[in-house]
Design brief:
By secondary structure, the chain is mostly helical. It has 14 helices and no strands. It folds into two domains: 2-128, no CATH class; 140-251, no CATH class. The longest helix is centred in the last third of the chain and has 27 residues, at 200-226.
């Protein structure tokens, strides 16, 4: 019963997202049955992928104009060389279309974010041999570690920087201090506990809470200031949690 309600919600949302597109409802329901984690907010993206899979030219045009046209900009977060960008775009499209990997999209998150990760992963793989041969460049460390976070920083530039700085400023003085000491000065949890005369578990909670608040506050400020989709900006959470120290070194 619950599954039937979910499928119905997906159908309603898909029709609302693309009222101008017609499709075989029974075939689309079968397509949805293979994607049990799908949520209605992304039903429109799923309908595009479904229609593309059955050869609908309108869906193909929508995919190209709304999503794949952004590939060069996305890839430039890894390398701005025109030849490199062209090679990666060709490789990504070959995987998505010729190898039909676009069918791996399950509707759990926005299609734009899913395609962005695919493009950045492909770009990183193609860039890797060059990076092994070239001398290390500290200024590009974050691109090696997580090019998608670099993409967000490049795309939103000063907005990302200001949101991060404002998130740090919103911490209490103690939270700001323990975060800086632990992340930038490599002061251990045990040393923090001794400095504040508290158990190490308490010091660890302080640091973890400060880290979480910076990540979530940055996310909330970007959503608020740039009118971004919460689902897309939510993808920043995992990236920022793993790369918070890199951002602190840059912006703190």
């Amino acid at each position: 019963m619950a599954r039937a309600l979910t499928t119905q919600a997906l159908l309603v949302a898909a029709r609302a997202a693309w009222p101008e597109l017609t499709f075989d409802e029974a075939a689309f329901v079968e397509f949805l049955a293979q994607r049990r984690g799908a949520v209605p907010v992304h039903a429109g993206d799923l309908l595009l992928v479904f229609l593309w899979s059955v050869g609908d030219e309108r869906a193909q045009r929508h995919l190209e104009s709304q999503y794949l046209s952004q590939l060069p900009f996305i890839i430039s977060a890894v390398d701005r060389t025109p030849e490199f960008i062209a090679d990666v775009v060709q490789e990504v499209k070959a995987k998505l279309y010729a190898e039909r990997r676009l069918l791996q999209y399950a509707g759990r998150g926005p299609l734009g974010g899913w395609l962005r990760r695919a493009a950045l992963n492909t770009a990183s793989v193609l860039k890797r041999p060059e990076r092994r041969q070239a001398p290390a460049d500290p200024s590009t460390d974050e691109l090696v570690v997580d090019p998608e976070l670099a993409f967000f920083k490049q795309r939103y530039g000063p907005h990302f920087r200001q949101a991060f700085v404002d998130a740090l400023a919103a911490l209490t003085p103690r939270e700001r201090t323990v975060l800086r000491l632990n992340s930038l000065s490599n002061v251990s949890i045990d040393e923090l506990g001794a400095m504040y005369s508290v158990h190490r578990a308490t010091a660890a909670r302080w640091v973890q809470r400060a880290r979480e608040q910076v990540v979530e506050r940055t996310r909330d400020l970007l959503v608020e200031r740039l009118s971004l989709e919460p689902a897309e900006v939510g993808e920043l959470l995992a990236m920022m949690r793993s790369q918070l120290d890199v951002s602190l070194r840059q912006f703190a």
